[in-house]
């Protein structure tokens, strides 16, 4: 997700520090950021924010955190959160590899990866959000029952992710190679998902869980 640079973006986000954080100061205090102590679901790469805001509104019994490193994009999510008065949603501008600097081990119940950058060149494989290096991060912050829910229109990334997760020893379930053929009523489409589905792209989806830990 790329948007024109807004010189005032950081000042805008700082003015809304009750719902968005642009540094790592929240470690050990994430749960205190919310009005209610509830399970926490995060979306890594929230884009324009349709998915995470709609999920938060649909599930007030869950606390959501949208993670988007581009401050110019994050502005849009903050605007949605404020305009719709969403109480169970907080936002972070941080890179995915630094999630263990924010969240305590086992603190997260679910991770959503929606339409992540496929990084198609082999030399860029380590940048893919389903690479082993990122799986280690997710494994640390997820609790024993935690899951990753992954959607993409990119067939190459989907096949790579199945292989990467399987080699890591994860259990895969609900693999769907054409999500919109019989779309579940509770599926919330991202802006990207809507656009590319309308162009005829098939949407792939899976759920994955790590090995149980002692």
TrEMBL record:
EC code: 2.1.1.33
Enzyme class: transferase
InterPro entries reported for this sequence: SAM-dependent_MTases_sf, tRNA_(Gua-N-7)_MeTrfase_Trmb, tRNA_methyltr_TrmB_bact
Domain of life of the organism encoding this protein: Bacteria
Gene3D superfamilies: Vaccinia Virus protein VP39
Ligand binding (substrate): 121, 153, 190-193
Metabolic or biological pathway, per its Swiss-Prot or TrEMBL entry: tRNA modification; N(7)-methylguanine-tRNA biosynthesis
Entry-linked HAMAP family: tRNA_methyltr_TrmB (MF_01057)
NCBIfam families per the UniProt record, alphabetical: PRK00121.2-2 (NF001080), tRNA (guanosine(46)-N7)-methyltransferase TrmB (TIGR00091)
Protein name as it appears in the record: tRNA (guanine-N(7)-)-methyltransferase
Taxonomic source organism: Macrococcus armenti
The encoding gene: trmB
